[in-house]
Task: structure prediction
Amino acid sequence: MSNLFVEKLAWFKQNEKPEVVLLIANVPERTQFVIAWTNIKISLADNLNELVSTSENDIWEWLWQNTIYSRDELIEKIGISFSYSGLENKMRPLIGNRILYPDGTVNSYVQRYLREKVVNLFENKPKRSTKKT
Result:
């Protein structure tokens, strides 16, 4: 990956906001997007667009403009049928609120929230008896 890309992305990861968890909490469809996002192949454009602005929003847009992923693979991993425009509309809030990162990772607070939910599912599951009746 380009040093500039990595450097700019690292800044966003160091300045995460925990409140974004509220955007996926109890919204199964958004949770499916987040999980699928971490399981698809992501690559960086061969020739990065020139970064012409230093504004936070412009840098975020620049990162995404230089990100390549398969919409078909994402749709397949989500498991819900979408048109490409429908997919983009569903992703826009996740990208705009910096839940999905252009390197295939997700906001660390969101990741911790999801892991905690999974752990709680296993902890709350009643243990099956091995005793035969």
